[in-house]
Design a protein that fits this description.
Strand content: 5-15%
Number of strands: 20
Structural class: alpha/beta
Radius of gyration: 60 Å
Largest sheet: 6 strands, antiparallel
């Protein structure tokens, strides 16, 4: 048995020599393995002796060393190999050197983690463009050098970025060329990069400035400049493109200038621009210029051909070339002029024919005292002139049993010369009826067989008959009958009407001469019979001779008187014809002017209506969303529109005055109110012009006047406006005073008390020879029609006519350079018109209720003008009214059929297609449309339009431009009234 297995004894703790050597060798092998880095070797620790304890300690040491080694290795692998910063070595059950080693490793890992993370944060910020970050962590050695290097790099990169950004902003954004980047303390790549940026900015500056110089020169019309700066790439392409554009533009400008000079200055038509090598817009522009020149050539040549033909007397030509715009208007005007010339020449030719033949036939009737010869000459000349194939002259002969009409001459009569003459009593047949009624009788479409017109080759029936009585001084002298196969023309009828009057004078003279001759013959027969009697009758015979002499003298006097009568009748007839012709021309001119003014009133008032309504709504700024300047703009627009409306009213007033249709409604009113109106209206205007302005009522002036106050205000407005307009310095004064009886104008004497309105100024004055002509239409204060002082020149003309309608008169006293005094004289108690009726009407109008609020009601607006529809809709919706719209009469009628909530209709009159009157008539035929109120809104505003609208079914009438307050008052009144019966 081994001794080691023995029980305890005194030698137990002492190893044997053999085991000790083997144990030491195992220990040595373990230490050698630890030295060589092999920590896997373990010693057996089951020995109970000292070697077992050493082995246990050795094994514990190797375990701790293995644990420390694995932790350090793990931390080194994570930080150095995997890049996982922040790792820590765990140190369980270690102490002493091992604990210090673990702590040192962990400290090294913490320092490296914080430094690397700080460097990474700065590098990441730089990569993201954030140059404000710096490395702040503590470091030593090479890490410190790396920290300082990176911080210096960030500073220089920030300075470089700021400079490059500044240069880019100045050049690229602000447009400030010539900027340079300045980065101090840089070298190497940073310096090269700075130099490259500066070189780029310098090149771009030179190129852009050169391009700007050339394009500026082109914009100013200088096509001689070119881009000469060196350039490459796209800038070179831009340079080449601009230089090519300048060359083409220069060539195009030269060609267009040549064509314009040839066509516009030298008058050589047909020129064409030729620009080689162009395309796109330049080619289209060249073609457009050539097309313009070609069109102008064709149009001007066509106009020249027609005007040359007209100058040579050829009025058959007209301009047929197509031409739009103003050239089209010129074409239409020239064609209208040629047509007017044709009509004028035709009318002149007809008048020449009429006067020539009247003179010729009248001359043929002169120089003979035989009625039969005169009748034969009339029948020989008149029927061929008026293209009649049959004619008869019936002379009135007085017999004991009445007057008979005997045919003493004929033209184309089928009866033979041996046939007895036809005779008719007054009232018998159409011949006698014409004599009885003393009016011409004309019959068309005669039945077959009524009469026959025969020639050597055949015969035909006339289709037209006219019977003309010859009347002089109320006495029927003869009847002329004419028949033909064709109706008489207007010219032939005018000839016959004038010729019949000439025949009447001649026949009357011949009848008087015949009676004188009969008396003379009877006297001679009596003388012969008395001569054969006894000598005792000599004394009586001498007396009869004296009677015969007196009769001869009377006959001569009668013949002279007849000749004077014929001459005067001829002169009167000519004057009457001229007056009739002028009256017809004036009537046509007045009709054309009235129609023109009515149409122009509609065309001007229609857009003006929407302008004034919307401008007033904007000026009121009810929603408060406009600036004070915008409100001022709206007020200026409304004021300008109101001035235009006043001009339209002035022109219409002038037309009404000329036509005698201006209404006057006299009322009795207080003079003080009129004075306050003048003061409030004109004192601000005078203040703006730096003029003194006074309104004075002298003692003794009547306190109340009876006249049309609105017309009186119109006259005073015109007179005061002229005074302010023609006065640059000094004063303007309105002085009202009663007029003494000895100073009353002649035309107002007997009219009762007279009041005078004196308008005095210190203006330019009027020459004495211009005082009367200045009251003509379109005359200025200097007596001319020039526009030197502005205005229309209608004010004084209208004022004088209105003053006349009011029963007054305007007089003027003026000295050039010192001023003028216009005086309006008016009767205190008025003239003309029914004061009571007008006052009652005015009172009724003044007492008209304002009506209930219209909010919540539904109104239909029928108007074909979208601007007016928009303006009226805005105005009505602002009052809380629901608005339905229709752009024509048919659509309005359809809405009335389908909508039950319509309570009132606002209707325009002058609409395309179905006008307002037809639309109102159709609405009134509908069952519910009979009771719906209709307010007519029209821009025509001519005399009689209101009465016509009310007669057509309207309940009320408002003229455009619409007074919004007036329209809303009428709408409220109608919406609150009883239903229409």
């Amino acid at each position: 048995m081994d001794e080691s297995a023995r029980g305890p004894g005194p030698d137990r703790g002492r190893p044997s020599a053999e085991l000790s050597e083997e144990g030491l060798r195992k220990l040595l092998a373990g230490l050698i393995a630890v030295r060589d880095g092999d920590l896997s070797v373990r010693l057996p620790s089951d020995s109970p002796d000292l070697l077992g304890e050493i082995a246990g300690i050795y094994n514990d040491m190797v375990d701790q060393l293995s644990l420390v080694t694995s932790e350090v290795t793990r931390v080194a692998r994570e930080v150095g190999g995997q890049g996982l910063l922040g790792g820590q070595a765990r140190e369980p059950r270690v102490s002493g050197v091992w604990s210090e080693l673990t702590s040192g490793v962990n400290t090294m890992a913490d320092n490296l983690t914080s430094q690397v993370r700080s460097i990474a944060q700065v590098a990441t910020a730089v990569a993201r463009g954030d140059l404000t970050q710096k490395i702040r962590v503590d470091a030593r050695g090479e890490i410190l050098e790396l920290k300082e290097t990176i911080n210096t790099m960030v500073d220089r990169l920030s300075s470089f970025a700021e400079e490059v950004s500044r240069v880019a902003r100045e050049v690229g954004t602000d447009g400030n060329l010539g900027g340079q980047a300045t980065v101090r303390g840089v070298s190497g790549t940073w310096k090269d990069l700075t130099d490259n940026v500066n070189s780029m900015a310098n090149n771009l500056t030179n190129q852009v400035r050169n391009i700007a110089q050339v394009t500026t020169a082109v914009a100013r019309g200088d096509l001689t400049r070119k881009i000469d700066v060196d350039a490459r790439g796209e800038i070179l392409e831009l340079k080449t493109t601009i230089n090519t554009m300048v060359d083409q533009l220069s060539s195009f400008a030269a060609e267009v200038t040549r064509v314009a000079r040839e066509v516009g200055s030298e008058g050589r038509l047909g020129g064409q621009a030729e620009v080689a090598g162009v395309s796109g817009t330049w080619k289209r522009l060249t073609e457009n210029v050539n097309e313009l020149a070609g069109n102008l050539t064709r149009q001007v040549r066509a106009i020249a051909e027609v005007t040359s033909a007209v100058a040579e007397g050829d009025l058959t030509r007209s301009i047929t070339v197509e031409a739009p715009g103003e050239v089209g208007e010129l074409k239409d005007n020239i064609n209208a002029m040629v047509e007017s010339l044709r009509a004028t020449i035709r009318a002149n030719e007809e008048q020449d024919w009429l006067k020539t033949n009247l003179a010729r036939v009248s001359a043929l009737m002169q120089g003979t005292r035989n009625l039969d010869v005169v009748a034969e000459r009339i029948m020989e000349e008149v029927p061929p002139l008026v293209r009649a194939q049959y004619g008869g002259f019936f002379l009135a002969e007085h017999a004991a049993d009445g007057t008979e009409l005997v045919m003493i001459a004929s033209y184309g009569s089928p009866e033979g010369p041996e046939a007895p003459p036809r005779r008719f009593r007054i009232g018998q047949s159409l011949v006698g009826q014409a004599a009885r009624s003393r009016r011409a009788i004309e019959v068309h479409d005669l039945p077959p067989g009524y009469a026959t017109i025969t020639t050597g080759t055949g015969g035909t029936d006339p289709s037209h008959l006219i019977v003309l009585p010859v009347v002089h001084e109320g006495q029927v002298l003869a009847v002329i009958e004419l028949a033909g196969v064709r109706p008489l023309t207007v010219l032939h009828r005018d000839f016959l009407d004038q010729f019949i009057e000439t025949v009447g004078v001649n026949v009357s003279t011949l009848v008087a001469n015949t009676r004188t001759d009969e008396l003379l013959e009877r006297s001679q027969r009596l003388t012969a019979e008395l001569s054969a009697r006894s000598k005792e009758l000599t004394a009586r015979q001498e007396e009869l001779q004296r009677s015969n002499a007196e009769l001869k003298e009377k006959a001569a006097l009668l013949a002279d008187r007849n000749r004077d009568i014929e001459r005067k009748n001829l002169e009167i007839e000519q004057a009457r014809q001229e007056l009739e012709a002028r009256a017809q021309q004036l009537s046509r001119t007045s009709m054309y002017k009235s129609e023109f003014l009515a149409n122009m009133s509609h065309e001007l008032r229609t857009p003006l209506n929407s302008l004034l309504i919307l401008a007033q709504l904007l000026a009121q700024n009810l929603e408060g969303n406009l600036t004070e300047k915008q409100v001022d703009y709206a007020q200026v627009i409304h004021s300008a529109g109101s001035d235009l409306l006043q001009l339209i009213n002035d022109i219409l007033d002038l037309s009404k005055v000329e036509a005698g249709k201006m209404p006057v409604h006299p009322t009795t009113f207080a003079l003080a109110g009129l004075m306050e109106y003048v003061e409030a209206t004109f004192r601000p205007v005078a203040g703006e012009q730096g003029l003194a302005f006074e309104v004075i009522a002298e003692p003794g002036t009547p306190e109340r006047l009876t006249t049309d106050e609105s017309r009186l205000r119109q006259v005073l407005r015109n007179l005061l406006s002229n005074a302010l307009k023609f006065t640059e310095q000094g004063s303007v004064e309105l002085r009202v005073a009663g007029v003494p009886d000895d100073h009353v104008p002649a035309s107002l004497r007997g009219a009762g008390p007279v009041v005078a309105f004196h308008v005095l100024d210190t203006g330019i004055g009027i020459p004495s020879d211009r005082l009367e002509s200045m009251f003509g239409a379109f005359q200025q204060g200097d007596g001319t029609a020039s526009r030197h002082y502005g205005g229309t020149g209608l004010g004084l003309s209208i004022s004088r006519e209105v003053a006349s309608l009011l029963g007054g008169v305007i007089e003027v006293d003026s000295t050039p350079g010192r001023g003028s005094c216009f005086t309006l004289y008016l009767p205190v108690h008025g003239r003309g018109g029914s004061t009571e009726a007008s006052a009652a009407a005015e009172a009724e109008e003044a007492d008209e209720p304002a009506g209930t609020p219209a909010a919540g009601h539904t109104v239909l607006v029928v108007d074909d003008d979208s601007r007016n529809v928009f303006a009226l809709t805005e105005m009505l919706e602002h009052e809380g009214i629901r608005v339905l719209t229709a752009d024509n009469g048919t659509a309005g009628i359809e809405l009335m059929r389908t909508r039950e909530d319509i309570e009132l209709v606002v209707m325009d009159v002058m609409m395309a297609g179905m006008d307002g009157y037809a639309t109102m008539a159709a609405i009134r035929k509908l069952l519910r449309g009979r009771h719906v109120p209709i307010v007519v809104v029209t821009a025509k505003a001519m005399p009689g339009d209101r009465a016509e609208a009310l007669a057509a079914g309207a309940d009320d009438y408002v003229a455009k431009p619409v007074d919004t307050l007036q329209l809303l008052t009428k709408i409220r009144t109608l919406l609150s009234g009883e239903p229409r019966p």
